[in-house]
């Protein structure tokens, strides 16, 4: 994350908390999610295709 703090302080602590599991659950339960979720396409292939 980008911070304008001269040294590690309150902002760095908040960012560290929000990056952990408990912080992520708080954000999710509060409904603070992106209006459009990013799409991730994953191509799966059978390991036997190349034989």
Task: Produce a short descriptive summary.
The protein is an all-alpha fold and 51 residues long.
Tell me what the structure shows.
The protein contains two helices and no strands. By secondary structure, it is an all-alpha fold. The longest helix has 10 residues, at 10-19. It has helices at 10-19, 21-30. The protein has a domain at 8-32. Helices cover 39% and strands 0% of the residues.
Q: Which band does the percent of strand residues land in? A: under 5%
Distance between the termini: 45 Å
Main β sheet profile: none
Class per helix and strand makeup? mainly alpha
Poorly predicted regions are: none
Strand segment count: 0
Radius of gyration: 19 Å
In one word, what is the shape?
Answer: elongated
Structure keywords:
about 50 residues; mainly alpha; 2 helices; elongated
Topology overview:
Elements: H1 10-19, H2 21-30
């Amino acid at each position: 994350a980008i911070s304008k703090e001269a040294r590690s302080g309150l902002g760095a602590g908040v960012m560290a908390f929000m990056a952990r599991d408990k912080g992520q659950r708080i954000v999710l339960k509060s409904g603070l999610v992106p209006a459009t979720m990013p799409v991730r396409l994953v191509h799966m292939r059978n390991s036997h295709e190349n034989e």
